[in-house]
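Consider this:
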Amino acid sequence: MASTEIPDIVIGRLPVYLRALSLMAAAGQEITSSHELGEKLGISSAQIRKDLSHFGEFGKQGTGYRISHLQDQLRRILKVDREWPVALIGIGDVGQALVRYGGFRNRGFRIVAAFDADPAKVGQPIGDLTIQDVATLPEVVREQNVQIAMIAAPAKVAQDVADLCVKGGVRAILNYAPINLAVPEGVRVQYTDPVTHLQRMTYYLV
């Protein structure tokens, strides 16, 4: 099945499965089942089997899934069996935390360039990087073949930053700014605004 025919909601569950499998593997577990995965994740075993069936057969009836094999297959499907270079724009509190976050590298991503518009920050070290002027972003990401960017800049400049990313050839943006971005067709955007997630939860509170 072509990737365009697979519902995005299915693709969105695959990293959740991969994370659960990684935790099982780290605990020394070798075999699991759709029932066990479902209990851990709050997803029906039938849904898990249906999601995985889009990509082939990964387990056997009665014996379940070999965790290491399923991990490898999900990494391949998600294309995180390689390391993706990532650009980060906006070195405020969120940006600094992202640079220092250790969970990207062993899951397929590495921040290779950091940008800011503040002249006081440009040229300063952060981690093993040097903060660069955001005006140089298109040239830098093109030179380093960066296709993924994370925007942690203020909302008022996030669209301008997104335009610079697109100009440099970025095709996927993770946006931390509390604003919806307008991007050309073929550029994917994911939003991670904690306030909207909190507001979604408060609906269910008494």
